[in-house]
Design a protein that fits this description.
The protein has helices at 10-17, 23-39, 51-65, 71-78, 82-85, 91-98, 100-108, 113-118, 120-133, 136-151, 161-177, 182-199. It is mainly alpha-helical. The chain has one domain: Hypothetical protein af1432. The longest helix is centred in the last third of the chain and has 18 residues, at 182-199. Helices cover 70% and strands 0% of the residues. It is globular, with a radius of gyration of 16 Å. α10 (136-151) runs antiparallel to α11. The protein contains twelve helices and no strands.
Amino acid sequence: MQYHKSFYSLDEIREKLLPSIDPISMLKIVDAYELSSNVHQFQVRNDGTKYFNHCSRVCKILIEELYITDPTVLCAALLHDVLEDSDVLTVSVIEYNFGKTVAEYVEILTKDLNSYKQNPDIVDLEHLFILEQAPDDVLIIKLAARLDNFRCLEFNLKRNPLVYIQKTTEQFVPLAEQRKNKKLDYLVSEIKKERNKFLG
């Protein structure tokens, strides 16, 4: 199966995590998976695939490549785009269901899309400033999402892939490199590999 058509199933998540986390934490991850799947149910990406595939693969990168089992980080990864794509969900709803930290992480990862349409450069700069103050775990989710998108560039995911590559390289990569975090270093390394593969 081509990478952009792949997704990470709940059965795969359970198989990986059940030996290392408690049942209550597993239930929260399942709830986050199902909520994200429902929110993104009718969304399709530019490459023709279901949007939720991306969210599940971000979770897969954290589990399979970074060996992260922290339920808070995994829930936030699965939910990282739900506030942008739902007219109903709020930070308070996420906090009620998944806890304060998950809600804070998702809020940090969320852009105001209405403002973005009006002033994309300003919103990008504001978002970058917020990420500069964010915990490493939030940056890990952000970079994992970027890595997944980089792995999909060859399937026409982005209308202007060169701009996406440039923005990632100039803004997010340096931000991650400053942290001296091995997981972030790994993500940066993989992003650079995908960039070089795409650019030839």
